[in-house]
Amino acid sequence: MVHIVTKRNKWRYAVPLDGMHRDRKRVFVDWLKWNIPVTDGTHEIDQFDTDDAVYLIETDGHDKHLASIRLLPTMQPHLLADVFPDLCEGPVPRGQAVWELTRFCVSPDMLKTDGRRLMNLMWTSVVEFAVRYDIAEYTCVTHMAFLSQILSAGWDTKPLGLPKMVDGGLIGAVLFKISPETLQESRSRFGYETSVFEPQQRWEAA
Amino acid sequence: MGRLRDVQSFVRHVGAVESLEALHELLEPTVWDFGFQYYALGHHVNVVHGDLIQIGNYPESWMATVHKRSYISDDPILLACQTSAVGFRWSDVSRHIELSTRQKQILADAWRAGMGEGFTVPVNVPGECAGSCSFAHRPGKPLNESALPSIQYIGCFAFEAARRLAHKPGMRNRMLAAEESLTPRQLDCLVLVARGKTDWEAAQLLGLSQDTVHQHVESAKRKYGVATRTQLVIRALFDNQLGFQDVIHG
């Protein structure tokens, strides 16, 4: 069951958040070799891990981070607008109903055994979150190596620009349109009959 | 930079195709439009016919040569897909893998058959067999470098459309994944079985008893619901438990 973690309830999720930043470092820095800052040699935290960020985190029964994704409101600073505006040929999509998907991370401990299930669960949670809280679109900056994985979620996808080489990697920006049908599709495709969130999980907009 | 419009248009149309034929009819002229004559899109397993996606328009004569000489098992392009997460030029394949004499022969034969320069986009969806989308043109002109970013997207979106079609109810049932994942030991035994080792040989190599190896292989067969070791290898390849390399290169 996925947790919705925000500034209001972060205090309850210190352990999973810590695990998330550690796993983000293992995945994005150690494995993918991205040129992003690391704190204390163990945690990957960047300028967008702010109070505006919403984290969808899947844990096991003992608060261990299994998978997560970070959502950023596009009315605030975010990757596409502030770091990679050149990836977008027109204006950067922004709005109350537009959020950015970033730092999709499956724990390296889970990859071999459970990677696919966790990936599908996170895709479903992102869609359910959108439908629940009236988010119509997600933007996303992605490395070409992961494009096929994201496309396997089956969402209505539109490239915002052609991919470009950045720091030795080919990355591009895309836009996903989410609707209640997307949620039905995801649930049926990945075998979820009801909400994937922990009961009583709520996100209160600031 | 008008190419983004073309890519966006392709993406919209490919999202609506209802058959592999329709996908081909959309992809072929798109590929021409970007300066290529040939394309091939599909999964990287040759052993199961009809169950996996394979579409394209490579010259008939080339495909006949490929089958006659069993080139698929050594294809350097397919092998390089295992080490590259992003698209690569065929002329750069030696940067990804060390080419054997046979592999250089394959590339030379392809050139003679009219497949000059090419670009391949690997596709790796977790839990599924590896695949790719390749674009090629006749020898004599250099690769259209400016088309490469667009072609990366075209390849990925086309492959996803093919996957979507393959999973449609009404297409043949493709629930080939195992009920539960193989344990590391089962996988160790399976890799050796796939390379043609007997249970005894595998036992020696793994430091297990022959009986234990036999049990592991039987458990793996049960997980996939198959009766023979050959079927097991095929299913495990499709399920991405085994790599192409595990099976073909000892």
Notes on the structure:
- The complex is a heterodimer of chains A (206) and B (250).
- With 206 residues, chain A is of the alpha+beta class.
- Chain A has a single domain (2-190), classed as Aminopeptidase (3-Layer(aba) Sandwich), CATH 3.40.630.30.
- Helix content of chain A is 31%, strand content 27%.
- Chain A has 5 helices and 10 strands, in the order βαββββαβαβαβββα.
- In chain A, the strands form 2 sheets. In chain A, strands 1, 4, 5, 6, 7, 8, 9 and 10 form an 8-stranded mixed β-sheet that branches. A two-stranded antiparallel ribbon of chain A has the order 2-3.
- In chain A, a hairpin with a 3-residue loop joins β2 (38-39) and β3 (43-44).
- The two termini of chain A are 24 Å apart.
- The mean pLDDT of chain A is 93.
- With 250 residues, chain B is of the alpha+beta class.
- Chain B has 2 domains: 3-166, Beta-Lactamase (2-Layer Sandwich); 184-248, Arc Repressor Mutant, subunit A, CATH 1.10.10.
- Helices cover 50% and strands 10% of the residues of chain B.
- Chain B has 12 helices and 5 strands.
- Chain B has helices at 3-14, 20-33, 60-68, 76-80, 93-96, 101-112, 148-166, 184-194, 199-206, 210-224, 229-238, 244-248; strands spanning 38-43, 54-56, 88-89, 117-123, 131-137.
- Chain B has a 5-stranded antiparallel β-sheet with strand order 2-1-5-4-3, with helices on one face.
- In chain B, a hairpin with a 7-residue loop joins β4 (117-123) and β5 (131-137).
- The termini of chain B are far apart.
- Mean pLDDT of chain B is 83; it is low at 47-51 and 172-176.
- The A-B interface holds A 89, 112-113, 115-116, 119, 143-145, 147-149, 151-152, 154, 156-159, 161-164, 169-170, 172 and B 1, 3-4, 7-8, 11-12, 15, 85-87, 123-127, 149-150, 152-153, 156-157, 159-160, 163-164, 181.
